[in-house]
Amino acid sequence: VVGYAIPSAYPSGFKSTVGKQQRYGQYDFEYHIQSKQDFENTDMLLEIAQEFGPDCLVGCTFYPSYFGAKLKKLLEDSGNSETGKLVPLWADLFGHVMAEAQARAHMDGDDTPLFHYWNSEYNILTTADIFSCVSGRQEYATIGELGVVGRLNRFTSGYRFTNTVPCGLPDEEYVHKKTAIRGKDGIGDDDFVVLWTGGYNTWTDVDTLFEGLVLAMKENPRIRFVSTGGEIPEQDIKTYPHFLSKIRSSEFADRFVMKGWIAGEDVPDHYLEADTGINIDKDIYEVRLGSKNRILDWFRAGLCVLSSNVCELTDIMAAAGAGYVFKPGDPTGLAEKLIFLAEHPEKARATGRAGKEFGFKEFNFSRTTEALQAWVEDPRAAPDWGKDRKIFFEKEKALANLEGITDKQKKMIEERDRRVAELEGIVKKGIAYRIYSYLKIAARKLRLIKETKK
Predict the structure, then answer these.
(1) How crowded is residue 35: how many other Cβ atoms within 10 Å of its Cβ?
(2) Which residues fall within 8 angstroms of residue 282, CB to CB, at 6 or more apart?
(3) Is the dihedral of CA 25, 30, 31, 36 positive or negative?
(4) For 59-102, what is each residue's pLDDT tens digit?
(5) Contact 206/175 with Cβ under 8 angstroms?
(6) What are the extents of the domains in the chain?
(7) I need a surface site. Which of 21, 228, 233, 438 has the fewest CB within 10 A?
(8) How many CB atoms lie within 10 A of CB 148?
(9) Domain 41-165+369-392 sits in CATH 3.40.50
(10) If you classify domain 192-364 with CATH, what class do you get?
(11) What is the pTM of this model?
């Protein structure tokens, strides 16, 4: 297992941990947690893979799948001398990345990110042997993309490229450890706590959330809003500050408790003390094709779920009576649901219990990953592996070649930055630091000479 240490979730300067032996239940595995720089170093990934000798590769979510596709190509180009055979790739496309790109472009007022996202998606689509999606809706979107890149060809007729692996939850209940909400920040035992957990991403409709909460608070003084989480540095740094500015100007500002990001181990205590968990989405393709992990967390805790009804999961939840929904972009409908639940807390608790039972039965990991479990028992390449795909024209070939050009440019920039830093060390520092800088340059050149000889 090679994990990516997301910069916003790990301390600055995090150093990769290599090859630790771990055990989960009856399974032993080798666990690498890599910094951003190391994870994006395909030479390091190739070294790990060749030493381990895998029978298959599994990319878990979009970004790791992108590097999984790179690694698969490297293994093929190197002849995979350690295993002597093709290593098929399962790419988990957890959410539709082009819909995410659209939401990002709208937020930034700039379509520039679209090409970056498509270039990455293109390399996964043209390389992986099989795919998983977070919803049935996303499966069809992915099938459309596969047609665009030439994978729906004569060799793959009848082949099932896609599977649904929805958000899931472990078969373990949360345990309350310490008081997190009640008796703090002016919140009493009788108050009705509406909880938000996680990031405020491009899909979050904070305007409807704010208006609905204010309407409800006017009717019921016991309603309190508690939020853990905040902006997402790699994705959205506008939505959360916008929400905070609206709260500051509100007559009910003291009934909003905005905690920001907190330690992950402290979040479950909030689930277990709140009355309902609120999820609110814009009615956009990113949400329609996606899903919501946080809803599964609330199911697991037995917390009543209240959500706008946009994604496939909320449709399923509402049909099963495992949670409450309201129309997207409807603050009045949201307020009505909040007022109803605050006035009937016993119904909220009953719905929370129903959601918990439903979640553990339908969304436990053993069930959600059945297709993946079956595939890794007998991993195979897609039928068009190594075949000529006639749909490709000059434009598509240029797009494929762009990946290599981009990588070379990135390495050139990194090398330039290293040299600039070394020269600055020689020019600006004292004699001791200058000697140190000269030695660093010499060591780097010797290393390059050795690599060239190899």
Answers:
(1) 17
(2) 103, 203, 204, 205, 310, 328, 329
(3) negative
(4) 999 999 999 999 999 998 876 444 446 899 999 999 999 999 99
(5) no
(6) 41-165+369-392, 192-364, 403-453
(7) 21
(8) 13
(9) yes
(10) alpha beta
(11) 0.82
